[in-house]
Amino acid sequence: MMKALFRLTAWTLAIALVVLPVAAVLNGWIGGERWPMRHLRVSGEFHLVTDQQVRDTVLPNVGKGYFAVNLEQVRKNIAGLPWVKQVDVRKRWPDRLEVTVTEYKPLARWGEKKLLAENGEIFAIPKNATFKLPLFEGQEANASEMMSFYSYAKPLFLTMGLQVQSIRMSARGSWSLTLSDGLEIEVGRGEPQQRLARFARLMPQIKNDEPNRQLQRADLRYTNGFALSWKQAQGKSEVANNLQQGST
After folding, report:
1. What is the pLDDT of residue 199?
2. For residue 13, what are the contacts with CB-CB under 8 A and spacing of at least 6?
3. Is there a contact between 84 and 44 (Cβ–Cβ < 8 Å)?
4. How confident is the model at residue 248 (pLDDT cuts 50, 70, 90)?
5. How far is the C-alpha of 222 from the C-alpha of 209, rounded, in Å?
6. Helices 51-58 and 71-79, axial angle in degrees (round to 10)
7. How many helices (DSSP H) and strands (DSSP E) are in the chain?
8. How many angstroms separate the CA atoms of 65 and 78, rounded?
9. What's the pLDDT score for residue 245?
10. Who's near 26: CB < 8 A, 6+ residues apart?
């Protein structure tokens, strides 16, 4: 009995002598000076996140040496920075930590509290963020379709020096948009791209025919043309009596 107890105690001490030093190194209790983390490599295409932000976030996690660096904790800390979409963290023996950061690339505002990234992902607006982006309003399930429509609509008005300022898609699939000069365009549902392209082709001619009036609204939901509203000098609107023909 005593011999068995003695052997058990001996084995326990032997295991402790092996395990405790390892645990001490892994937890940074010892070995930090012998195996320090000397180098940090940060890579990524930075536009909204800075290299210095990443370094300042990593620094508190590497002071206890190579073996004590908790990669998952480092990853979580960096992922908490504004605009960070994805983080990859790796250790390279003997003294290097490599961090790769992927940013969100915002394409548009999604309502008042979110942003739409170029990959179609919708995420919360980071605190204190300032930007000038078009406004998208619609259902999240239609985000990809709205991105495609925006990509189609945007170049149609660039030659006139105009930007698409906002784009909306109703629950029934009806499209409307606003340009940077304040023009509201009601596109409708059926063949929206063709309707919009036809209007964009005729828009310079329409403005040339009415050089002293500002176009305020265009309703394209007609088979053979569209209705126009003009902004008067005193701030009132005048609706065109006749449909402008949409054919060339």
Report:
1. 96
2. none
3. no
4. very low
5. 21
6. 140
7. 5, 14
8. 19
9. 52
10. 67, 68
Domains of the chain: 22-103 (3.10.20.310), 131-245 (3.40.50.11690)
Alpha-helical segments (H) within the chain? 2-26, 51-58, 71-79, 143-158, 192-209
Q: State how far the Cα of 10 lies from the Cα of 5, in Å rounded to an integer.
A: 9
Q: Report the C-alpha gap between 155 and 164 in whole angstroms.
A: 9
pLDDT at 191 over 80: yes
For residue 177, what are the β-bridge partners?
167, 185
Q: Is the pLDDT of residue 24 over 70?
A: no
Residue 220, amino acid: L
**Whole-structure pTM over 0.85, yes or no?**
no
Phi, psi of 221 (to 5 degrees): -85, 50
Ranges 12-21, 86-95, 203-212, 230-239: which has the least confidence: 12-21
